[in-house]
Amino acid sequence: TMKKNKAVSKKRALVRWFTEDFIKKNPHIYKKIYSMLEKTNHETWLKVYKIFAYHEDNEVSIKKIKANSLIITGQDDIGSKPKMSESLSKLIKGSQFKIIKKGKHLCNIECAENYNLTIREFIDKNAKP
Asked: Can you give the pTM of this predicted structure?
């Protein structure tokens, strides 16, 4: 956990967020994200994490969403698991659920091409003339 500002906490987070192969091939991105974690205000982070950990979705409110929605997640995300995103998608009528193959928590960075293409296709499909 990130209860204390320890290097091991940051390293564990990054291993959960990126594949080992990506980290080896992209040390500059690893260092940049690590640096961002070092600058995190840990008191604030713990408050936000507590909300995340204990929050219960209001299904009634979620079902009221009428906007075209894309629910997207990484295939190997262990924090926000695909099953969680799929359940959310089922609550939002007409939403699309997409899994980024081989992606983890930060698949928008690691699998940027696939991630961006998925969003582009969603926008193109839902753009009003």
From this structure: 0.81
